[in-house]
User: Fold these one by one.
Assistant:
Number 1:
Amino acid sequence: QVQLVESGGGLVQAGGSLRLSCVASRSIFSISVMGWYRQAPGKQRELVARFGSGGSTNYADSVKGRFTIFRDYAKNTVFLQMNSLKPEDTAVYYCNCLKGSADYWGQGTQVTVSS
């Protein structure tokens, strides 16, 4: 089992930056797929960025060039650096990982971008 704890959300003006953190309860070396999703009010949860199996990295088209996902194995942490934030980035951001056949989610952290 894996527990995921997110932090770093908040209120920021358009054009600003935030860095989200997701700390896993076990070594992320053993986790094949890990990343970030978001859900805005009235919308479906969507992929933002993730590390896929085989070392691939995937980004939603809407965040390419603005967001960067990276990880620190020593801290069992995956980060999401968000730059040039837009009001449409407002959502609850969730950390997710897939280990074997099990899917794990964090509790979410709110990101609000004001215009």
Number 2:
Amino acid sequence: QVQLVESGGGLVQPGGSLRLSCVASGFTFSWYAMSWYRQAPGKERERVAGISSPGGSTMYADSVKGRFTISRDNAKNTVYLQMNSLKPEDTAVYHCNARGHDDYWGQGTQVTVSS
């Protein structure tokens, strides 16, 4: 059974940091490109970061470039999103996505940036 389980979300003050993790199971993780998406209430889903299979290249949305870093550990079947200098507009539910032969999604983790 395929699973993507996100963790690490929470409430943080503006300027703070969070590290999201997504643990994958049920498929060959290293064969899949991984991405983090986010969706805020009333807004469209946005791809914020992606990393290739097995991990040679990355991409970032302009809104997070220089503040967020995506990485993966294929030995642990895990993708990370390090988020620094968080802003209130980063508030959203963050989902991880695996794309390869198939397309898999996690349930999401809530990130709230507020003072």
Number 3:
Amino acid sequence: QVQLAESGGGSVQPGGSVRLSCTGSKKTFSRDCLAWFRQAPGKEREGVAAMFTGDGTKYYADSVKGRFTISVDSVESTVYLQMDSLDSEDSAKYYCAVQTSATRCKEAIDTGGVLETSKYWDWGQGTQVIVSA
């Protein structure tokens, strides 16, 4: 099991930017699926960005495409989510998650489920992002 810890959340004005970080207890993220999810009050948890560190391919939800960027420092076992042009709809608790089985990771990608919560076994505790004037 991988321990994950998010940081970087806070309050930001509409149009602003925030960078979230998530550091894992795994020595390196070499062939893993890494993802960011978010959950707003009263809503289901939704995937916003994911990547497979084996080949660097990235995936984004339509709602954040062009505004959010997922990246990883595999040596430091840290995954980032750069969020730009934020609006109130982006207010939520953000969670990072990892799937360390390359087989399950590829299966998730091949079936179009790389942004589904069920595909990830290890989760962080989340960090709150509030977008408000």
Number 4:
Amino acid sequence: QVQLVESGGRLVQAGESLRLSCTVSGRTFSNCAMAWFRQAPGKERTIVAVISWSGRSTYYSDSVKGRFSISRDNAENTVYLQMNRLKAEDTAIYYCAADPKTPSFATSIETPRSDHEYDYWGQGTQVTVSS
């Protein structure tokens, strides 16, 4: 059974930083492209950031580019989302997702953007940014 467990969400003030973590168990983490999505109240779930299974490629949505950073530690089966200069509009439930890949040079740089491409999801962690 594959499990993704997010942690790190909390209430912060605008301008502060926060780091989210997502630990994966039950399958080979190192072969998975990993992503963070978020869903604000009354809105659809949207992509935030993606890191390829190799770590060689990353993708960021325009709304977080330059402020957020995604990274992974394959030894710890964990993906991180470092969030800096947080804004009120970053308030959302943040979800971690895993997309298993067959390792190859081509897949090593893939950063899937659609939630339909992800097979496994965490339960979400709430981030609230107070202005």
